[in-house]
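Exercise 7.
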Amino acid sequence: MSSKHVRAAPELRKLVDRLIEFAYPELRRHDFFVRWKSISAFAQISWSITDRTMRIECDKSVRDWHESQKLGLLAHELSHPATAGYLNKEEDIDLDVIDRGLGTYLAIERISAGKHEDHWLNRKRDRYLGYRSIRSLLERHELSQLDRLLKGQQLIPSLRTNPQEPMSHDISVASSSGDTYVQLEGITFTLDEADIEGEFKLVIRDGTAFLYVNDVVAAESELPD
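Solution. The predicted structure, written as tokens, is:
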């Protein structure tokens, strides 16, 4: 991959370190590599369950986000490996972020992602919590913090999503025992490879979801009725 598309992100690494120190002590012994990369989602996290290595990539569109919005996005990514599983629902990941005291940042991030209401996935088998749902789960002091952040950033939560948003929210890739599990849009694909790096895309045709890796079909999954 050329340097035009992949760049180290020391500023993001500092935010990851802050989050781990504050809310993710179980990840302190893991080795992280954090970088900018042109991808088809706001962020992607890849990790090996066996050797404690992790890679977080954020799309260049995230560069202009406020620090609090980046914290919300990165917290969601860290909760994927921190919940000790690779088949967890996105809703459970969001709830884990809130339980760790980071719901304020998650709510701010969903404004940037254009998700005021819940974003349902996989024919309503899963969902990303929207700004409104996250706000309803926050404690009083967290709501005060959220309102201060909204005012400081001059953000007004919109009921409308961004009609030009082509990306998925995030992609998680976990490797274990020779297999790789890719979770995208609430769908989990299993690949018979230990480590995969490339561009992931989801295509749905006639009730079947196809996972493309570097423009080649790598796996497929029948969608539930």
